[in-house]
Design a protein that fits this description.
The chain is an alpha/beta fold and 206 residues long. The chain folds into two domains: 8-136, Rossmann fold (3-Layer(aba) Sandwich); 140-205, Winged helix-like DNA-binding domain superfamily/Winged helix DNA-binding domain (Arc Repressor Mutant, subunit A), CATH 1.10.10.10. It has ten helices and five strands, in the order βαβαβαβαβαααααα.
Amino acid sequence: MINATAAIRVVLGGDQSLVLDGLRGLMAREADIQVLGAAIDGDRLLDAIRRLRPDVVVIDVQLAGTGGLALLQQIRREGLSVRVLVLSAISDAQTMRAAVEGGADGFALEADPPSSTLAAIRQVAAGQLAFPAAARRWMHRSNDPSALTDREEGVLALVAEGHSNADIATAMHLSESTVKFHLRNLFAKLGVTNRTEAAAHFHKRG
């Protein structure tokens, strides 16, 4: 858990030095955010995360080398204890879906005001999910059970086996807040209100 009284320790990953310099300058004025380091390619960023153990890493989708979304998956596979905010120049549904499915804690748009990025960093540092309204709209677009994503199917199967959110997070290399996000979505799609009903639906479906 992040100490609420300490500065949020952040590592930045961007595809251009200009972007990184802009983010550094933005955060330098914030008393509650401390930038530990930055990198312009995925391999160096992963090394910085391993060494510096930040609270939050901001990853640009267009990272050189190992791309941002591939790096997100690697972070989750390694079980690194860091909250991940994905930064993108575009807000297409495919990119946002990939970020959610990959276990991102938040998604921010480069075109949004700088204050939005800062707010997103603070949200994910506090264990909350931070996604633009567009992401929430397509996540809730259907109540058809067949529309469950692969990630939601995995969460549902573990719920049906009686696992807690913490167990599911460990098994699927996600944060608990991301597990809760998937639970809300699959509950809505299945038309159920709790874990017991969701498990019953899973077993009934066979």
